[in-house]
Design a protein that fits this description.
Layout: H1 6-14, E1 19-20, H2 26-35, H3 45-55, E2 60-65, E3 68-77, E4 82-89, H4 98-112, E5 118-119, H5 127-135
Parallel strand pairs: 4-5
Antiparallel strand pairs: 1-2, 2-3, 3-4
């Protein structure tokens, strides 16, 4: 994995990057996800937030710059593997190391919990993000991801 540049990390942390999500942030978070193309009709973003907050609220981080939500990440660890969802950075702030810094923070927190590996699921249509993760040292693995929906959001 990577090590975040200390200057970028200090810049982000001094502006609140890595704060825990608060209920009043919901509208801005959803707008950010929409601007990054992360929302889909079959996942209700507000319900995803509510589920995360009910289950593990401290594992939902947001980045604030001048009071505005500019980045998010949800993460978790089930005792076997870590995972990341909804990593997003406002298009106007992309390319400045914010996503890299959030991933560094997540990696450090998961490592402290004894997490040996982080698995990612990226939509096939999101080639830009795949490239980002590859630059961080992630590789595609020969696995098939399968799912079964128990609760419909539509």
């Amino acid at each position: 994995f990577f090590q975040a540049d200390d200057g970028i990390r200090d810049f982000c942390l001094s502006r609140g990057l890595g704060d825990v999500y608060k209920r009043q942030d919901e509208a801005e978070v959803i707008a950010l996800w929409e601007s990054c193309g992360l929302t889909v009709p079959w996942n209700d973003a507000a319900r995803d937030i509510a589920r995360k907050v009910a289950h593990s609220p401290k594992q939902f981080l947001i980045g604030l710059i001048d009071g505005d939500v500019v980045a998010t990440v949800m993460y978790g660890y089930d005792g076997h593997r870590g995972r990341v969802n909804y990593l997003a950075v406002s298009p106007s702030f992309q390319g400045h190391g914010l996503a890299r810094t959030l991933m560094s923070q997540v990696q450090a927190m998961l490592t402290a919990q004894g997490c040996p590996k982080l698995n990612l699921m990226v939509r096939q249509s999101n080639a830009q993000v795949t490239g980002f993760y590859k630059r961080l040292g992630y590789t595609e693995e020969p696995v098939v991801v399968m799912g079964a929906r128990f609760i419909r959001d539509e």
